[in-house]
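pasting for the record
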Amino acid sequence: MTASAHSIRRRLLAKLMIPLLALAIIGSGSAYAIAHYYSQLALDQWLYDSAVTLAHQLHWVGNRTQVDLSGSAREIFELDLTDRIYYEVTSERAGRVFANAALDGPSSAPQVGGEPVYYDAVVNGTKVRAIALAIVSPSNDRIVIKVAETRIKRNRLAHEVFFDTLLLALVMVAGSVALIWRGIGSGLRTLERTVHEIRLRHDVDPQARLPSREEVPLEVRPLIDEINGLIASLERAYRSQHRFVVDAAHQLRTPLASLRVQLDLALRGTGDKRALENAVHAVARMSHLVHQLLALARAEGDENAGSMGPVDVVGLVRAEVERQWDRASAAGSDLGYSGPSSGLVVTGVEALLREAVGNLIDNAIRYASPGVITVGVDPSAAEIHVEDQGPGIAATHRERVLDRFYRIPETPGDGSGLGLAIVAEIVRRHDAVIDITGGEAGRGMRVSIRFKHVVTPTRAAGGA
């Protein structure tokens, strides 16, 4: 397997990893924010308890505020193995009453009887978390109590919460990846069984179809359908090519043998001019046969599917009549066109439709001369027809003459039996309909082609 080869398992996992990691990051961030919020609440509650404890140590002598906190009690109050504790008690009348540091006040002063104010401050260049609450003395003196602590515990707790949460999220992601990898593998085993079954079928029959839709996972069915369609298309192309080669070899064998005999006679001086004339006739027959075989191959092939477009049927038919008029005249036939000068445009391949019309005219010249041959277009019916006054075709043979290489017994001429078969194949490619009937008054033959895919509205026009 090359470095550029893709693995469905890896690609699925890669596509799932991004949302998984995003969810892990969002989950970790959310868990950290929640844990940080509640840890701050707990530590802020400790600050509040300390401020209330300090407030309970206040007493008043006359109009003076004093703090009843002995040395040992003060040491206990300030005791913290991790952070430094700062406090300050101020009186509106007397200023600072009791403190171990100068603490800045909050941006909004606390109100007596109101909620305490929590805020961030800086003491001696160190960031601290502080609380301020206000009480009133019996002499109506406003007292503000502020307590602060450094942020070591808070930062440490935040880091621990973050890394623990991140570790837990990574463990969950790793577990999810393992489960997803296993789940994808379990799902792909069904596909692997399908591939194994295809390999076994291919060993038995290289042209075998893939498993039916019911035997494969729902997601794989469109791929199976497309591959089966491709196999069917390749099989048709192979059979068509094989049939073409076999038919060509079979049909060319007789004129080639005849050509060799005539050329041998000419080389020996036997027959002279007659032998050369026969050789020329054999070459002409082979040329006509090769042309028809190639036309049949083009009609059966898929290379024309992309060249479908609007085709002016009237112009095409009139041009083909003009092209073959001299040949028909030499054969004693009166070849003419009957129909409008415009009015029928269909979707098709112009080269193939020209080949079909040419073969119908050629067939009429070969088997109905001398006589009248009429080629017509009926826009109202979206139809081309070729009618002659020849011997016609019995009803029992009208279906079979559309088969390749079929010739009615005792039919004169040296045709190959491909003309009408080519027309039938071209008609099939254009999703049209071919119909063979007797001519007017039961004499001759009428071959019509009716189209389903008309580009312009049909309308009657003046005859030509």
